[in-house]
Amino acid sequence: MSLLACQREKNESALGTLPKLSDTALQAAQALESNACKGMRACTYDGQCTLVKGRCRASADGDCQSSLSCVDWGTCQAKDGQCVARDDKLCQKAWTCLNMGRCTARDDQCVVDDDGDCGRSELCKVQRKCKAYQGRCIRSG
User: Residue 100: its pLDDT value, please?
Assistant: First the structure.
């Protein structure tokens, strides 16, 4: 047997004796990775709670629905790693609808669509801005 073959056999033998990662250790490592984004601002505010290719992203609607962005802006559905607004009912529950009249989901955000959107908002009740005009609520007349 050549010296090189002998050395290779010795190295393979030594490598074979290295301890393998136990199933428990592997599960713990995966759990740490899956929770890497939890508690970070990107998760809390923007719903980017899942680690994807080394970056925190919104990978499921659940990520978005537990975020402040959902509560404030109605962006409660995941799309391409971001939270977006695609449901009028979720827009209507959001701060942006109740206060600014942005109650209709369009182009991935909550927008002012008509006078009804403005009519249900604080802008109408407090400032009498009850008419929809070019995506915002204004006073009529």
Answer: 97
Q: In whole angstroms, what is the distance from residue 104 CA to residue 83 CA?
A: 16
Domain definitions of the chain by residue range: 25-84, 86-141
Of 106, 91, 98, 41, give the one whose Cα is nearest residue 67.
41
Taking the alpha carbons of 33, 34, 40, 43 in that order, is the dihedral positive or negative?
positive
Q: Quick one: pLDDT at residue 35?
A: 76
Predicted TM-score of the model (pTM): 0.72
Query: How crowded is the C-beta side of 130, counted as CA atoms within 13 Å?
Result: 8
Kindly indicate the confidence band of residue 27, based on its pLDDT and cuts at 50, 70 and 90: very low
Q: Which two tokens stand for residue 67?
A: 């975020």
Contact by Cβ (8 Å): 34, 62: no
Q: What is the rounded average pLDDT for all residues in the chain?
A: 85
Calpha distance 6→24 (Å, rounded): 36
Helix, strand, coil fractions of the chain, as percent rounded to 5: 45, 20, 35
Report the 10 Å Cβ neighbour count for 125: 12
